[in-house]
Amino acid sequence: MKKKDIVTGIVKRVEFPNKGVLETEEGKVIVKGALPDQKVSVQIQKVRNGRAEGRLLEVLEEAPDSNESPCIHFGKCGGCSYLTMPYVKELGLKEQQVRSLLKPAVERNSIRFTWEGIKTSPVKYAYRNKMEFTFGDEIMGGPLSLGMHKKGSFYDIVTVSGCRIVDDDYRAILSATVDYFSPMYDKKEITFYHRMKQEGYLRHLLVRKAVRTGDILIDLITTTQEEHNLTGYKDALLNLQLDGRIAGILHTKNDSLADAVIDEGTEILYGQDFFYEQLLGLKFRITPFSFFQTNSLSAEVLYQTVRDYIRSLYDQSNIKNDGVVFDLYSGTGTIAQLLAPVATKVIGVEIVEEAVEAAKENAKLNHLDNCEFIAGDVLKVLDDIEDKPDLIILDPPRDGINPKALKKIIDYGVNYMIYVSCKPTSLARDLEIFQENGYMMSRAVAVDQFPWTSHVETVVLLTRQNT
């Protein structure tokens, strides 16, 4: 195979994350965006060391068991990948991907290991409690769009008014926003932010909704390059017939060059800038920029899994139920607070200061006085903590754990750790170092937090040998 060749074949499997393995007469080709059992045509882009990579040109035949997509934007929006797959097949795919990545660690294992399959999300559609929509146009000079990036594009935006991973309230708010600003855009009275030109006003629309109470926060993110009276927009939103209740309408200013929602000053147009959400009996104060799992009901499955792993250790008297627990990469302290009732002290470490402040507020809200949260890099903070842990919980970002921090964590010599991973490739890399230092997997399970996407969470119980 040579660069620019066009080949066809059947996708035999999909490796994490969303890399189809195509078998052709000329050899194997890796292609992003293809689904298992599809017949596709691919243009070769790279051939190196006998490995070919290509760009998906066309799906020639769908998989025999494929479904019709329930979302009108599928294939155009760059969001969901697996909407035409039966959900049970998607679960099997994700479980196989995680098991394949963990296989080297299993083979290195010297203690009994139990694989516990994959846990499903309690809801398959309308599961997201937060969405960040982007303003733009779908074609250059076209009408105003608000939604998600077009598949394969950094600039084109698809208005996802029929998105299925959010509920009707999100769709109504999105449509009302487009309807309000489109006439102004057509008359050249208002602009959207162009990433290339670094010019324009409308940037993002952030919407959050509490699963338990139905409270909604709406935040319009703009630059300061133009000034507009947003009273009419606020009134248009308040006139919507929604299932939930609008708790607050906000306006955030963001002149950062980064293509991200960054708070550089927020004013309240209506109501308040927070609401409360509940997980496993605990209450959490959520602001527009709080870190919080975006699938609340599946987050309960994830956190209950962590709690069950710990409870099994207590039941077997493997650890004492009045010890010190480290919750490293603790975010807003959800896991720390779930463990607080069975620990003398829980210490959470998180580099994002806003998340740490939220964790402290939430601990007070839940009347927990044995939680300490420290803002800083785990690599540096561990040097200053005098307490020694009896148990360590790890919930790092997608890139995994800094190798230098990993060494400090291992040096504590605790008998057990629980690793919560949002990227199994990073987990597999870190497991190699853990196993080199005597920590072996004794239990592991995958959790589907994000149906119809390529993402999957994994929970692993690590046991130190000779304990």
From TrEMBL:
Which amino acids does the record list as binding S-adenosyl-L-methionine? 293, 329, 350, 395
Q: What InterPro entries does the entry give?
A: MeTrfase_TrmA_AS, MeTrfase_TrmA_CS, NA-bd_OB-fold, SAM-dependent_MTases_sf, U5_MeTrfase_fam
- Annotated CDD domains: AdoMet_MTases
User: What are the positions of the active site?
Assistant: 422
Indicate the secretion signal residues: none
Name the Pfam families on file: tRNA_U5-meth_tr
The entry's keywords: Methyltransferase, S-adenosyl-L-methionine, Transferase
GO:BP terms for this protein?
methylation; RNA modification; RNA processing
Q: Which domain of life is it from?
A: Bacteria
Molecular functions per Gene Ontology: RNA methyltransferase activity; S-adenosylmethionine-dependent methyltransferase activity
| Family assignment from sequence similarity | Belongs to the class I-like SAM-binding methyltransferase superfamily. RNA M5U methyltransferase family.
Q: Which PANTHER family match?
A: RNA M5U METHYLTRANSFERASE, TRNA (URACIL(54)-C(5))-METHYLTRANSFERASE
Recorded protein name is 23S rRNA (Uracil-5-)-methyltransferase RumA
Q: Which organism is it from?
A: Butyrivibrio hungatei DSM 14810
